[in-house]
Amino acid sequence: MSSTTRSPNEDPRPAREAGEGGDDGDRPSITEVNGTVAQFEMTYSPPVGARAKFGPPWRTRLPSAAYLLGALVLGAVVLYAYVAAPSSSVIFGWVVEGDRGRPISAGVLASAILVSALATVVRTHMRGVLVSDQWIEARYLLPLGIPRARRWAWAQVHRVVIDGPRLALELWDSSFERLPEVERAFELTDLVLQQARMRRIAITVLDSTLT
Q1: What long-range pairs does 157-160 form, CB within 8 A, spacing at least 24?
Q2: Which CATH architecture group holds 130-210?
Q3: Sign of CA pseudo-dihedral 73, 75, 77, 80
Q4: For a tag on the chain, would you pick the N or C end, based on fewer CB atoms within 10 A?
Q5: SS3 195
Q6: Long-range contacts (CB closer than 8 Å, 24 or more residues apart) made by 143-152
Q7: Residue 136's closest CA among 103, 170, 110?
Q8: Which of 199, 210, 189, 204 is nearest to 159 (CA)?
Q9: Would you write out the chain's pLDDT as a tens digit for each of its 211 residues?
Q10: Are the C-beta atoms of residues 95 and 80 closer than 8 Å to each other?
């Protein structure tokens, strides 16, 4: 009867086959296995909440639009007088020849008026209301034409007051803020009411036709 004696240094476990990662350098790295996940985490950015803008009504835009139209007409007349008007025409005599005795030329005056008209249009369009999922912002114009913007988080709003097409906010510090008039007033009202119901903000309707 034969017996087999193993050496004390002999490993009883079977030897690993080649290609199974016997060397540490041959083991697959974490970045190779999870490379797609790592790349996604680095390039992912959270979505930005959308916001809605409600501009001023047309009746407040008409004066600035008329001013801009007049400035464009004046600039076109001055440009025509300098570029294409015949020397015997009334426009040429009134603009080009008349500039010889004026302290400010017609071209400089027309340019200043055009820049002023553009600034008036931009300033007019700065008024209105912006609404997002996190806040509501009102943009006004002070009596001297200085723009003013105020923003409140929805958590600051205690009550929404509806008075026909106009809206007002009652804040938690008991102050009231009347929002400026906008062009799409009832769309703004619907959006504000939607946000108020989502956050259980109190709603007061002063106009019975909206109830």
Answers
A1: 157/196, 157/199, 157/201, 158/201, 158/202, 159/201, 159/202, 159/203, 159/204, 160/192, 160/193, 160/196, 160/201, 160/202, 160/203, 160/204
A2: Roll (2.30)
A3: negative
A4: N
A5: helix
A6: 147/123, 150/177, 152/177
A7: 170
A8: 204
A9: 444 444 445 554 444 444 444 445 554 443 344 443 333 333 333 334 568 889 888 888 898 899 999 999 999 999 999 888 888 888 888 888 888 888 888 999 999 999 999 988 888 888 889 999 899 999 987 776 677 889 999 999 999 999 888 899 999 988 989 998 898 888 999 999 999 999 999 999 886 554 4
A10: no
Strand partners, 191: none
Domain boundaries, the chain: 52-125, 130-210
DSSP β-bridge partners for residue 121: none
Query: Please, what is the Cα angle at 161 between 156 and 162, to 5 degrees?
Result: 140
Two tokens at 121? 């249009």
Give yes or no for a contact between 122 and 145, defined as CB atoms under 8 angstroms apart: no
